[in-house]
Each structure stands twice: as structure tokens, then as C-alpha cells.
Design brief:
globular; alpha+beta
């Protein structure tokens, strides 16, 4: 079967049946900014996996998000100018991104704004939550490698298997 792409609130995930594998990429897990909600998400994913099914996801690491604190970034093309800033609140475990986006429309520019929040999860915290809802054989990998993450890894990948 071809892959199924869905867009739903992860806390209400419904895959309309069971699957052998589920993948959540591009910091999707970091966007669950309340740890109690992440337990619900992990339970929903587990519910729709076949026994022995695999769940793979990536997260931005605490190291990366703390490193971005106060940084400004600019992306400039002929038709779009985007500037954004990252603020990291260590006590709240939150990184906030503020985007100003200017899009060329004819001879004029239209301004838009976006705000994103990411929660900073420790790898061991994620492992604990996965075990708590019934995943086992949990492996954590470095960015784009099949090796354990290094100390200053910017992104990690986690693979967990649904218990039988």
C-alpha cells in the first residue's frame, strides 16, 4: 500500500485501522508543548500500530534549541523575504520562533507573521514516556546516522516498537 499522509491533532489521531509503522518528522513531537499531551499522542500512535509495529520520530535537542537563543535568521529570495528570531526559555523548556514574512505581490509586498513554539524534551524523558504507554525496544540515534547520539547532537531520531 502507498503511504498515507494525514493532518490531524495528534492527541486525536485516527488512522482508520492499524498500520505496521508510523513516522512523525520535522520536529512534530517538539510542537507538543505540554508533556501530558505527549503521553496522549504516544498512546494514540500505539493504539493504531500492529503488535511489533514501529514508531519513528525526530526531535530538536535541548542543545540545539538552547544554542539558538537570541539568534536572528534571514531567508531572502526574489519574491519572499523572511526574518525570524528564536527565544529559548530554559525554565519553561520552550523555544519560540517569531517569523516576519514579506511576500511580493505584483509591485507591492504583503507582510505576514507566524509564531511557533517547541517544547524541549530530554531524550531520556521521551524514552520514559514511550515505555510508560507500552513501547519497548526503544533506540535513540544521532542525526542521520545509525549511531548513538553524540553529546552536542542537534537532532536525534527515536525508533520504538509496540509491545506484543
Amino acid at each position: 500500500n502507498p503511504p498515507m499522509f494525514i493532518c490531524q491533532d495528534m492527541r486525536e489521531l485516527d488512522l482508520y485501522g492499524t498500520v505496521d509503522a508510523a513516522i512523525c518528522m520535522l520536529d512534530g513531537i517538539n510542537y507538543v508543548t505540554v508533556p501530558e499531551n505527549l503521553l496522549i499522542v504516544f498512546e494514540r500512535v500505539r493504539l493504531f500500530l500492529e503488535p511489533g509495529g514501529i514508531f519513528i520520530f525526530d526531535v530538536n535537542t535541548p542543545y540545539k534549541l538552547s544554542l539558538l537563543d537570541g539568534e536572528y535568521f534571514v531567508d531572502d529570495t526574489d519574491d519572499v523575504y523572511c526574518a525570524w528570531r528564536v527565544d529559548f526559555e530554559k525554565e519553561k523548556h520552550l523555544a519560540s520562533y517569531s517569523f516576519d514574512i514579506f511576500e511580493k505581490v505584483g509591485k507591492l509586498w504583503r507582510r505576514g507573521e507566524e509564531k511557533h513554539m517547541e517544547y524541549v524534551y530530554e531524550p531520556e524523558e521521551l524514552k520514559y514516556m514511550l515505555k510508560k504507554v507500552g513501547f519497548n525496544d526503544i533506540n535513540i540515534f544521532g542525526n542521520m546516522s545509525m549511531l548513538p547520539p553524540e553529546e552536542n547532537e542537534m537532532r536525534i531520531f527515536i525508533c520504538a516498537v509496540k509491545g506484543k
